[in-house]
Amino acid sequence: MAFDVFGIGNALVDIQAQVSDDQLLAAGFDRGIMTLVEDEQQRLVLQSLDGSPLNRCAGGSAANTIMGIANFGGQAAYTGKVAADEMGQFFLTDMREQGVMIEVAPASPGQTGTCVIMITDDAQRTMLTNLAVSSTLTEADVDEAAIADSKYVYIEGYLLTGEGTKAAAYKTIELAKKHGVKVAFTASDPFLVNMLRGEMIALIEGPVDLFFCNEEEARSLTQKDDPADCAREIHRHAENVALTLGGNGSLLMHDGELIPVEGVDVNAIDTTGAGDMYAGALLYGITNGLTWKESGHLASHAAAKIVSQLGARLEHKFTKEEIMQLTSHR
Question: How far is the C-alpha of 177 from the C-alpha of 65, rounded, in Å?
Answer without folding.
Answer: 21
